Amino acid sequence: SVSAAFWEDLQRLGLQDFPCGLGSWNKSRFNARRNPPRGWLGLGADPARQEETVLLGEESPDALMELLHDRHSPWALPTDCSPQDQHLREMAVLAPELVHGSNVFRVFRSLRIIDKRVEEVDEGLLQLDQLEELILSANHISRITSANLPQTLKVLELCCNAVADLQDLCAHPPPELQHLGLGYNRLCGPSQDKYLTAAFWPNLVSLDLSFNNFTDLLGLVSQLSSLQKLRILVLQGNPVALIPTYRGFLVDSLTKLSILDDIHIGPDERHQFHGLARQPELIRSEARVVVSIGKIKGVPDPSTCQQLEVGSEAPVITYSYCVTYEF
Length: 327
Prior knowledge:
This protein is an alpha/beta fold. The protein has helices at 2-13, 27-34, 47-53, 61-69, 83-94, 217-224, 246-253, 267-272; strands at 110-112, 133-135, 155-157, 179-181, 206-208, 232-234, 259-260, 263-264. Among the domains are: 8-22 and 75-107, no CATH class; 109-283, Alpha-Beta Horseshoe (Leucine-rich repeat, LRR (right-handed beta-alpha superhelix)). The model is unreliable at 36-52 (pLDDT under 50). InterPro entries: Leu-rich_rpt, LRR_dom_sf.
């Protein structure tokens, strides 16, 4: 579950262990913050004065931070860790009470759990009641229940999972969501088109549906047209993208789009495709695919000219092949 992966990551960070957390290496500094004697400046005050108050056998904040940042330090994070991981550890040095116990839930604005074999988005995620960005790419999620999502979410990324149905996600979706990433999943049109409307996503600015199985361009556009704030749309990799008039029809139908399939829509392109949305008869249920053969091993090349001597009576041998593709 997402919760299990979350706690596993926290444990790996060692927020309660040296040089983070609270221990013999910094205890007097935080005891003094709770019961400050006269002249005690506390955390966040003049660093020079803080250095003066460090007791024998303890470490200054600067020394502890250096242990986190020096790449040769045994307490340095691996290079593949996120900036958020580093920030949490710094916070555990400077203000360990903020990441102790349940307090840690209020710290998170962004959570990235990528390629951790997560299958379930469980209700434990609701403890992160300040969460705005949730990245769950490259996991094994097949269904996601909106009741288990913090309502504060603005970004939800589910790329490279196994999501085939949006019904549970759209039961009570986060109302402020601005980006929804569903690329490389198993969504099929037209059964899922009805969940891609402003009734579920009134503030959606960016939508990634790439590399799914949407097949009904007219039906999909009729639903997406209700998303008045939509500016970025990715549909490449779907069967609809093979339709010859695909891009022109979308550009003219969704007039507020700024970017389609990672390509900016300029005024010239708007003018070029103007009026295409009023000609749905141009959208045929067929597509043209060009397949280029780079190299075939073990077969004589039919284009190679035979080098024959002048006056030779040797027979001329020609080769031809038929290659069939089944879709």
